[in-house]
User: Fold this.
Amino acid sequence: MHTPDALRILVVDDTPSVRRELSELLSGLPTVDSVVAVGSAEEAWEHLPHAVPDLVVLDLGLPGMTGLEFLRRLTSRPDRPVVVVLSNHAEPEVRRRTTAAGASAHFDKGLEIRALLAWVAEFHPPSRRADRGPEVTP
Assistant:
């Protein structure tokens, strides 16, 4: 059962099977109201004016505009959603760059799906809570 303050999530990943699986897993969380999945940063950028999500789950290795470029563009928006990176690129230096660019957390796509789901289950948007989500130390 979804609560009135349930989350709206935007998944940005270029792999159709990952988009489908993440959409299913995230939609199954009681804290989630809706999940929209797109295959590129450009599609995500076009989606934002129509419905700003509470949370963006972002891959880094995207065609066209990279996930890191998209993340940096989002920081200029006054209605900027919280962003969590889910990528195969999870080396410490990459994690530092995504955090410096504004990501609230960074998860390894191959190893940390359960950790991502747990993070999302505990997440409350800044407009509903003072912080940007639970602390994550993968």
